[in-house]
Write a structure and sequence with these properties.
The structure is a single chain. By secondary structure, the protein is α+β, with helices and mostly antiparallel strands. It has two domains: 237 residues, Translation factors (Elongation Factor Tu (Ef-tu), domain 3, Beta Barrel), CATH 2.40.30; 44 residues. The termini are far apart.
Length: 372
Amino acid sequence: MTKKHKPRSGSLQFYPRVRSAKPVANFTTFPKITDGASKPMSFFGYKAGMLHVMAKDLYDKSATYGHELRIPATIVEAPPMKVFGIRAYGDSSKGKYALTEIIAEKFDKHLGKRIKNLKGNGDFGKIEKLRDRVVEIRLIAHAQPHLTGIGKKMPEVMEIALSGDVNAQTDYAKNILGKEISAKDVFSDNEIVDARAVTLGKGFQGVVKRFGVRTLRRKSKKERMVGSIGPWNPSLVMWTVARAGQMGYHARAEYNKRILKIFENPAELNPSSGLEGYGTLRGTAILVAGSLPGHIKRIVALRKAIRKPHIERKLSEITFISTRPEIAKTSEEEAAVHKVRAEKKVEKEEKSVKDEIAMAVKGEKEKKEKEK
């Protein structure tokens, strides 16, 4: 008899599968970029929805070279972020640690809802005194959800790493403190980035849905369970055994996502009826190829790619976006459509009248036959 083999169910790469501590997923590691001027290496936005676009494939080694491709894409609304603090890091045998931080004297009024009793100092002398011990400078910034239409004012606070050496980072941080940074300052069109967010939560689920375990035969005591969770001796349940538990609402990162285009005019992406579950875009939006983790209105972190992609795909300019009709119908075409609909309606009404008459005649015949 042929030996039946089923590969193990469920990936062991994501453990423990627990709920994320908070809905904001930030990056802790960043690529090392020391050359050139200092600039931010990550940005944050709100997931708005998905659509599809058409663009021509310019990668000469591809089977679809020269053809127009239909590309699913995710919209991330990315209003400007405000830098309200600077944090200096030192280095020790146990790793990096925070030396000191500077808070801007003036900051957004909505930030007080997130951080209580926040006081600004704006004293750069702290960093200058510790200049010999500083190994890295990072920005403390917050999103501005009140500039979007999601109905939220309390901002999310996050840390943003900078490229360049320490001196370049310090100079950039001094100039940007208390000001805004936009998505265009960080990313460009056709750039490869990494995305991180908290996935859609699905609550407590069993092993079949959570790990894809095959169900048992119908005559067994229970169908939707694991056949054996471990041996009697030694009595041990390995961590690799599929068990019921939390599914979804995990912090997950996806690598090498392509930014198709950054739209500064939201009218280019807004459908006439708005995006389902989100509404209309009000500011800058980033169009990313493919899907992204997270629920609609949930914040998504985008970072400079830390892994080099295997294939550098090249696409032409976007030729079509599915939010608007490709070809508008002329008045003659619309009149022809209305005419066909009217003819079908008349034909349906005539058929219904004929059927009623036929049924009535048939009923009278049956009645006469019974009387005879």
